[in-house]
Amino acid sequence: MSQSTTNTDINHVKIMDLTSNPAPLGLMGFGMTTVLLNLHNAGYYPMDAMILAMGFFYGGLAQIIAGIMEWKKGNTFGTTAFTSYGLFWLTLVGLILLPKLGDNFAGLAPVKTAFAAYLFMWGIFTLFMFVGTLKATRSLQVIFLALATLFFLLAIGNYLNNPTILKIAGFEGIFTGFSAIYAALGQVLNEMYGKKMVPL
Question: pTM for this one?
Answer without folding.
Answer: 0.87
